Prior knowledge:
Helices cover about 30% and strands about 15% of the residues. By secondary structure, the chain is α+β, with helices and mostly antiparallel strands. A 3-stranded antiparallel β-sheet has the order 1-3-2. Strands 5-4-6 form a 3-stranded mixed β-sheet, with no helix packed on it. It is flat, with a radius of gyration of 17 Å.
Amino acid sequence: MLRGAELRVTGPRLAVLSAVHAHPHADTESLIRAVRADRGEVSHQAVYDVLRALTDAGLIRRIQPMGSVARYEARVGDNHHHVVCRSCGAVADVDCAVGVAPCVTASDDAGYAIDEAEVVYWGRCPACRAAGG
């Protein structure tokens, strides 16, 4: 994947990419802990730099639901959306409601060439609902 994106293959890049695949929707601090558990000591800045490079290369996607820190996922190449729990902050993927990315066809595109739509659904996850949250 890294070579296909014309990025050098390095230990930190492999570790961060693996962590994002293993922990979808994880925030940066969680990914730093996962990378350190895998590789030992790695600086915050190294992880931030790798996350930026992987995002810029299109290998991962950065999302930031309102009121949340940035989170990263490896599901790229489609126009899926997210559902966020108002109680615990859990995030899950949600496919477009009908057809192939119908949400990128705006009723009025104002002259823009739209290639992505960001939709966030808000509610309470099953665990929080069961706990009365």
